[in-house]
């Protein structure tokens, strides 16, 4: 069946997307120092992440400091923390649900129920992608607005870091994987009609009936 091909592919894409979400959440490179105007040659660069800020020296040494207070953070960082963690949790839940309903497992016996469970896993993957997409776009928009704001000094300007690009890649994988898993719920993917097998008669019972003729 087509579903037998779509399920492993969708599951693999969703799993890869969830892992990338966790990586993006942990990396401190959401915002990086922008080298503009007279700020081209500097002795250090600054990285800002969801959980810590790091200063990288030109010699290669790096010092990081965890954010002390959540309430002291900017609103976009607070929102990004919550939604990124929610996205990772939804991705883990989607993985468990999808594996439980996959055709290669025997956790659920009824075929139609397994299809509904896999479809629910695809919906969870899509919800996970939307949760991580909101803070990524919000953070990127704030970075771009501040970069073009003449009132912001060059030393305070930031650029989009690698963590945001990784998050966008994770979002694309989660959306694609969730869509593939949702497609397995269609009748065309699992077959329009279930396969029915006629009962077979044993050879011993057939020979036994011949003796009475």
Molecular structure report:
It is built from six helices and five strands. The protein has helices at about 1-25, 75-100, 110-145, 160-185, 185-190, 205-210; strands at about 30-35, 45-50, 50-55, 60-65, 160. The protein has a five-stranded antiparallel sheet with strand order 4-3-2-1-5. β3 (about 50-55) and β4 form a beta hairpin. α1 (about 1-25) packs parallel to α3. Residues about 190-200 and about 200-205 have low confidence and may be disordered.
* Distance linking N and C termini: 45 Å
The radius of gyration computed from the alpha-carbon positions, rounded to a whole number of angstroms, is 26 Å
Strand fraction: 5-15%
Q: Care to count the β-strands?
A: 5
**Poorly predicted residue ranges:** 192-198, 202-206
- Please count the helical segments: 6
Helix content: 55-70%
**What is the general shape?**
elongated
Average of the residue pLDDT scores: 82
**Oligomer type:** single chain
The H-and-E topology, N to C, reads as HEEEEHHEHHH
Helix/strand layout:
Layout: H1 2-26, E1 31-33, E2 44-48, E3 52-57, E4 62-66, H2 75-101, H3 111-147, E5 158-160, H4 162-183, H5 187-190, H6 203-210
Antiparallel strand pairs: 1-2, 1-5, 2-3, 3-4
Core attributes:
single chain, 213 residues, five-stranded antiparallel beta sheet, 5 strands
What's a quick, concise take on this entry?
The protein has 213 residues and is an alpha+beta fold.
